[in-house]
Every structure is written in structure tokens, then in C-alpha cells.
Design a protein that fits this description.
It contains 4 helices and 20 strands. By secondary structure, the chain is mainly beta. The protein folds into 2 domains: 143 residues, Jelly Rolls; 98 residues, Jelly Rolls. The strands form 5 sheets. Strands 1-17-14-19-12-11 form a 6-stranded antiparallel β-sheet. A 6-stranded antiparallel β-sheet has the order 2-3-9-4-7-10.
Length: 318
């Protein structure tokens, strides 16, 4: 029996030695090194299903709602996120509400709003503000300006908002009803999350580098900021993600995006661009100026695998 075990151990060692270095898993406690793997892609590639599309241009959205002050335009709906452009007329106010386990956050494209978030001092968010409402914190929005306030809002997909007992929840949502309950915890903020950020002041005027705006176990929204570069060649595919959609909200300058199977598009401030599951995608700042995109993705705490082209690391001497 001992001889059999010894032979099996030698055989296992032989297989390990024969395995290409690029295929071996990094041993615990060592610095990770690049390795080649097989990644699965859908055939045909993951499609865009309405309301999702390669790019939603804010100019087209505004044109479609010309003459209206209050409207909601669905822009993206994924497993994780429900993204909508919203316009509120002067004086319009939302109900007080909260989401149980996920964040609501938005980018103010134009106008101004008064934001009330439980445990926080009320503040006015104007063009360029990013707002982050932590789970379980009741919030409301009021347009305190003289023109419509337009903003891109992201809420958790498939999750209905909850309401404080002092509010009257809607009773006209098909398939849903509201019942009285009790909870014993309130959400809050930490070092990686703040209620808001004034992008024009805190980033542009300060000439700051990109950084995360929102980060938790389920959601991340990173401000990727940089000077424009020449458009990479079409042979540079960028990377892909398994079972994960990536969204970009352009908040400064112009961004060039290439998604496999699509034509190169250039997004401007307010535009929303999406890369579906398993599709190669690449985003770079447009040549000629500074640009920033808010990259919105799920599952950041557990880590996000970026699958690059097989020669990506070798070209960089890694």
C-alpha cells in the first residue's frame, strides 16, 4: 500500500512539473503572477436587451422629452442595477423612502436639488454632484431650482423601496402590496463612502486623480480620470468579465469605448455606455482633454476578474 501511495505521489509531482508555469495557481503567501486561462464567452455574444443598449446619449434623451418637465427614462436594467434618467419639475418632491440592503446613487446632470438623508445634514446638489444613499437610510429629493433637475439614478434591480411609517406608500404598483413591519437597524457611512461629492469642486478644481466614489460588498462606482490619449488600435480589445455588466456614466470630457461586435463610440458628459456580460470592452479618455467616467460594477468586495488578451502580460514583460 505504501508503495502505491509513493507511486501516486510521484505521478502527481510529475504532472505538476509538466504543467506550464502560466497554468499553475499562485501558492498562498506569494505575489500573484499572470497566468493563462480559458474564459467562457457566449455564442453568439450577449445581446443588448431593451432598455439596455451600447450608448444612451443624453442629447437624444432630452430631445425625446422636449417640452416635458417631469419624466423617467429607463436606460439600463441588469441583474444588479436599474438605471434611469429622471427629470423633476421645479418644486417637485419625492416621497421619503429607502432601500433595504443596497444603495441608491445618482449623478446630477443639470439643475439643482435639495437632498435629505437620514442622519445627515440636508444639502443642495447641483450640476456635477454625485450622491450616495446608504442602505436603510431614508431619503427624499426636492427640486429647489427654477428649472427641471435632471439626474442619472441607479437603484438595486428588482428591489422595491421601503417607506418610513410616517409616509404613505404607493398602492398602484401591480403585483406588490405594502404591509406594516418593524426593523431594528439603520444604515450608515464609512471611510469608503460619503453622502455626496461635488465633482467640479472636489475633483476638477482640485486637479485630483480618479478614485472610488462608492464601494461596498455589492456595488462599486469608481471615478476613472485621466488625460486623453490617442485611440488604441482595434486589435486592442481591453478585457472582459464573466457574468457581469459594466456601465460607464461620463461625468467629464469625452470617452472612447470599443465593445466587441460594435463600432467605436465616443461618449460625452451625461451619456451612458454599457458593456454586456462576457464581451471584450475598452474605455479610454478621448484625445485632446481631461475626461472622467464613473465605472459602475457589482461584486467588488469579492474581487473582479479582468480577462485580458493572452499576450497582454507578456507584452508588458510580466
Amino acid at each position: 500500500m505504501r508503495a502505491v501511495r509513493f507511486a501516486a505521489a510521484l505521478l502527481g509531482l510529475a504532472f505538476a512539473l509538466a504543467e506550464p508555469a502560466s497554468a499553475q495557481v499562485n501558492p498562498p503567501g506569494t505575489t500573484p503572477r499572470p497566468r493563462q486561462v480559458w474564459a467562457a464567452q457566449k455564442v453568439p455574444e450577449s445581446p443588448y436587451v431593451a432598455p439596455n443598449r451600447l450608448i444612451w446619449r443624453i442629447s437624444e434623451i432630452l430631445a425625446a422629452h422636449k417640452g416635458q418637465q417631469s419624466w423617467v427614462q429607463p436606460v439600463t436594467l441588469t441583474r444588479d442595477f436599474d438605471g434611469q434618467y429622471v427629470s423633476m419639475a421645479p418644486g417637485e418632491k419625492t416621497k421619503s423612502q429607502f432601500y433595504a440592503d443596497d444603495r441608491a446613487f445618482w449623478f446630477v446632470y443639470s439643475g439643482q436639488m435639495r437632498v435629505n438623508i437620514e442622519t445627515q445634514a440636508p444639502f443642495t446638489a447641483t450640476k456635477g454632484f454625485l450622491v450616495n444613499v446608504a442602505p436603510r437610510l431614508t431619503y427624499s429629493i426636492e427640486n429647489t431650482g427654477k428649472e427641471p433637475v435632471v439626474f442619472f439614478r441607479v437603484t438595486p434591480a428588482g428591489q422595491m423601496p421601503s417607506y418610513p411609517i410616517t409616509e404613505t406608500p404607493p398602492d398602484t404598483v401591480p403585483g406588490w402590496k405594502y404591509v406594516k413591519t418593524a426593523i431594528n437597524d439603520v444604515g450608515g457611512y464609512d471611510a469608503l463612502n460619503t453622502p455626496y461629492l461635488d465633482f467640479n469642486k472636489d475633483m476638477v478644481a482640485a486637479n485630483a486623480k480618479g478614485r472610488p466614489f462608492l464601494y461596498d460588498g455589492h456595488t462599486s462606482a469608481n471615478m476613472i480620470r485621466g488625460m486623453g490619449v490617442p485611440t488604441p488600435p482595434p486589435t486592442d480589445w481591453g478585457h472582459l468579465h464573466e457574468n457581469m455588466v459594466e456601465l460607464w456614466c461620463i461625468i467629464e470630457g469625452k470617452i472612447d469605448v470599443l465593445v466587441s461586435g460594435e463600432q467605436l463610440v465616443t461618449g460625452e458628459v451625461g451619456d451612458i455606455i454599457q458593456a454586456p456580460n462576457e464581451r471584450w470592452h475598452r474605455a479610454t479618455s478621448h484625445e485632446g482633454g481631461m475626461a472622467t467616467r464613473l465605472a459602475i460594477t457589482p461584486r467588488h468586495k469579492e474581487g473582479q476578474v479582468h480577462y485580458y488578451q493572452e499576450d497582454y502580460y507578456s507584452k508588458r514583460g510580466q
